[in-house]
Amino acid sequence: MSSLLIKGGTIVTHEETFKADILCKDNKIVEIGDISVLPKDVETIDATGKLIMPGGIDPHTHMQLPFMGTVAKDDFASGTVAALAGGTTTIIDFVIPNPQQSLLDAYHQWRDWAKKAHSNYTFHVAITWWDDTVAEEMKILVKDHGVNSFKHFMAYKNAIMATDDILVASFTKCLALGAIPTVHAENGELVYHLQNKLMAEGITGPEAHPLSRPSSVEGEAANRAISIANTLGAPIYLVHVSTEEAVDAIRYAKDHGQTVFGEVLAGHLTVDESVYQHPNWATAAAHVMSPTIQTKTSSRCALERRTSWHATNHRH
């Protein structure tokens, strides 16, 4: 393959900004600097006055996800085209096995769906049930397929919720494999109780969603997951953190030397729970997501404290 020279641009990384040329060969960067000696058959792009940035990595996507009777609107083709248009060149999607389903079977199903992706992609794999075969398949996924993170839903009782005994077993296996456990931190038992209470009271519209998931639901689960990881000596990554209580748990753990990462969703920082009172039902229902969009106070606290923990963009 011919070589590519990107000349005269300003390189922007997560640490510094500087002017330099970039020489690529066989689709890999082989040299950065003031490049004067050029290989044969080089194609040159003049980047003078332009910024050169690494492609974005979105660590949390759901392409064509089948979930509790629905399917995500974007598939791997349309979703990755949209990602590339915004400068995201890699996504990390989620393989979510049904309870009792082989992790490897689910992984290969997602790999098949992803064949039409237009960007780079990789996967987290969710732990939705547990026995010795799950532990063995986690090992195969890490050793043979490059998976290095496993997702745990503390929400969604009677569906894919990971109970405490599953968290302990899976976190322990992650630690042994050198993988990182990630968690959706919401107390599934409390959510289930509150949902049933609201339905019994006839409150079943979008306005019920935040009532079934007060901020303490996330705060309790975040504290519990972090405590379990700390006891086992494992790192932990909390996805779509939305409440002051969860941020406080992350900050406290990090201040005491624990390896904890938090991920933030832009919507949790810019929208508040008034969207669930919108007079147009479809508009209100379109904001039903978990964790729910919180009050302005909770979102503002998360925004003000975001510099104290690792924040990433998150897309659904």
Which parts are unreliable, with pLDDT below 50 for 5 consecutive residues or more? Answer: 305-316
Mean pLDDT: 92
End-to-end CA span: 37 Å
Number of domains: 2
Number of helices: 11
User: Which class of secondary structure composition applies to the elements?
Assistant: alpha/beta
How big is the Rg? 22 Å
Largest sheet: 7 strands, parallel
Quick one: overall form?
globular
DSSP strand content: 15-25%
Describe the structure.
With 316 residues, the protein is α/β, with parallel strands linked by helices. It folds into two domains: 3-52, Urease, subunit C, domain 1 (Roll); 56-308, TIM Barrel, CATH 3.20.20. The protein contains eleven helices and 14 strands. The protein has helices spanning 76-85, 103-113, 132-145, 164-177, 188-200, 208-212, 215-232, 244-255, 266-270, 281-285, 296-304; strands spanning 3-12, 17-25, 28-33, 42-46, 51-52, 56-61, 66-67, 70-71, 88-95, 120-126, 149-153, 180-184, 236-241, 260-264. The strands form three sheets. The protein has a seven-stranded parallel sheet with strand order 6-9-10-11-12-13-14. Strand 13 (236-241), helix 8 (244-255) and strand 14 (260-264) form a beta-alpha-beta unit. Helix 4 (164-177) packs across helix 7 (215-232) and helix 7 (215-232) packs parallel to helix 8. The longest helix has 18 residues, at 215-232. The model is unreliable at 305-316 (pLDDT under 50).
Concise synopsis of the structure shown:
The chain has 316 residues and is of the alpha/beta class. Helix content is 37%, strand content 25%.
